[in-house]
Amino acid sequence: MRVSQPRPQAPPATCPPPDPAPAVRKSRLVLVVDDSRAQRRVLATVLKRWGYRVIEAESGQAALALCRAHPVEIILSDWMMPGMSGLEFCRQFRALPRAGYGYFVLLTARNSSEEVAEGLEVGADDFLGKPVNLNELRARIRAGERILRMEEELKAKNHALQAALARVQNLNNTLEHDLQEARALQQALVRERSHRFGPFAVNLLLQPSGHVGGDMIGVIDAGGDSIGLYAIDVSGHGIASALMTARLVSYLSGDSPGQNIALEGTRRGQTRLRPPDQVADSLNRLLLEEMKTDHYFTLLYATLHVPSARLEMVQAGHPHPMLLRSGGDVTLLGEGGLPIGLLPEARHESFEVVLRPGDRLLICSDGISECRDIGGAILGEAALARLMRHHAALGAGDFLDALLWELEARTGREDFADDISAVLVDYRPGAG
Question: Where in the sequence is 4-aspartylphosphate found (predicted)?
Fold first, then answer.
């Protein structure tokens, strides 16, 4: 057996003076490890007087067994012990599976930098010279307590954060479900994507950039010789824009003037479509005076008189309708106009165009005309006109599918940065 260093049984420095320190906040469990029973007794007596719970071990092996059985928080271990040294005990202690941290103080007469480095390397937190000075001991213990408290506070905050994240995840799951339902409801606002009115085929395209969007397109069938067509793009994105869009659609749906702002009654008790400029002015007044929202929207509203193939349109900030003539020429229609909901004094003027057999009219949102490629360059009206000519031989429904495919290929993705919407009017006498 190795002869250990002399260990005074009760040196003057270890006589526990009255402790003026306040009671500790938590009665922590301290393990004292020393092959000298007298040294253990001295330290244990002092620690208990300071309010700690204390257990003792005479060897490293016995200390490891106690650490497996008890939630030891602070360890005071002699470095030089027969059998397993304090250094090896520290190494094996750090390898134990534990729920919390254990603050480890090595008691040693060694103070060389190499030995200190070795102790830190195996996981010791602090060192205390022997014979033990009680003021230093108290300082080391309190330092350990501060670290343990910080770990406990961090664990508590992590636990609270995990609970908050779980709540957020539950909310996100609920929101995701609700948004999926909202998307289905918004898509249901455009129940039919393909219509035929005599020689005219009208096809609709609507694809929000997220779950829900601010674009909307639709057809108003007044039951006479004329039909109404509208394309709306509400400012912004997401839920607020979608709610605004749904509210606007409510003003453009229904079969009577009391339900649909685009309809008016005649003296004979019939219903007919109002002129496009009046519809735009009414929506502008409605948005500013009654709805009182920060949102505005662009609008392209048109009435098509089927027998004469005459289109009367109003453009309120929406992209220019693009007319592809049967001969291949593409013409931009309209002069822009002010969006709906910006100025109370804004007035909108209608313009007309007469379609010829074989003509195709595309009304689209800026999600199409300003669609950016992978490099950030926008599509633009010239490139869109080329696409219209390139796919001119396709039927109306296939044309919109091809246009969507072209945008996906351009961006390299199926989810676009902006809502995609379009109304396509195809004049094909004899095709129906």
Answer: 78
The Cα 91–Cα 60 span in angstroms is 11
Domains of the chain: 21-157 (3.40.50.2300), 189-427 (3.60.40.10)
CB contact set of 57 (below 8 Å; sequence gap of 6+):
31, 32, 33, 63, 65, 66
Mean of the pLDDT values across residues 335-343?
91
Query: Sign of dihedral through CA atoms 291, 189, 257, 347?
Result: positive
- The residue type found at 76 is L
Question: DSSP secondary-structure letter at 124?
Answer: -
Helices (H), 270-395: 276-286, 366-369, 380-390
Query: Which residue pairs from 335-341 have beta carbons closer than 8 angstroms and sit at least 24 positions apart in sequence?
Result: 337/280, 339/235, 339/296, 339/297, 339/298, 339/299, 340/280, 340/283, 340/284, 340/287, 340/296, 340/297, 340/298, 340/299, 340/316, 341/284, 341/287, 341/288, 341/293, 341/295, 341/296, 341/297
From 43, 15, 392, 413, select the one nearest 207 (Cα to Cα).
Answer: 413
For the segment 175-195, the average pLDDT, to the nearest whole number, is 73
